[in-house]
What we know:
Blueprint: E1 2-10, E2 20-25, E3 30-37, H1 42-65, H2 71-95, E4 103-112, E5 115-121, E6 125-130, E7 133-136, H3 143-149, H4 155-159, E8 180-185, E9 191-195, H5 197-200, H6 205-213, H7 218-231, E10 238-246, H8 254-259
Antiparallel strand pairs: 1-10, 2-3, 3-4, 4-5, 5-8, 6-7, 6-9, 9-10
Helix pairs in contact: 1-2
Amino acid sequence: MSYTFVAQTDRGRVRANNEDSVDFDPVSGLAVLADGMGGYKAGEVASALATGHIKAELSRWLQASGQTVNVRHIRQAAQSCVANANALILASARANPEHAGMGTTLVVAIFCGPQLILGHVGDSRCYRLRDGVLLQLTRDHSVLQEQIDAGLLTPAQAAQSSDRNLVTRALGVENAANLELNDFPVQADDLYLLCSDGLTDMVQDAGIAATLRQRTTLDQMARDLVQMANQNGGRDNIAVVLVRASEAKRPRHFLARLLGRP
């Protein structure tokens, strides 16, 4: 399996600064997205610390481990890198009064062969489009999701709630990172979307699915998603990462190449 990555972020139409951060490494099959919060520009610090540290450390580990690494070891490495990022954010908040109270959500996706190891903290999400069907792979760590799970709110009521941005987990607010990790099989032609709530608060799943079904270039789809969020109000920063899975091309045998055969 081979993977193609594209990322885009935008401050939206209301916020003066951008507290979302994205990064990816195609060589190691890694994508990271974070949505910062807390204090003037402190959210930017938290999200940048998270994506920068996790991308640098985890991609280095993945490349050094090579093709023999298994899912259990990848999960352990992801947990360790996220825990270290959590400690960095906490240390920065304690050392700098202007950073006090900062934190960030996180989505980290590791594509290893025909497998996705997916971790998240907070309400930033990962979706998969397969055979035209959009599925949310993450489950929000939020007050609203807990109320939905308890039967106190319907999803339609939750969409109108003023509490939709209250998360129950975030990096940089507790000593434990509380990373949720899950594994998913990957198929050729799958399309994955990592995004902050600046997209999902402004664009319903049906609109996201319609955009991803267009099967244009990843760059164009990313621009379209950001544009839709802004057209619907752009009340928050917007971040998206798109990852397309393709069947890896096998090198032709020398004799076949010589004879011009496929």
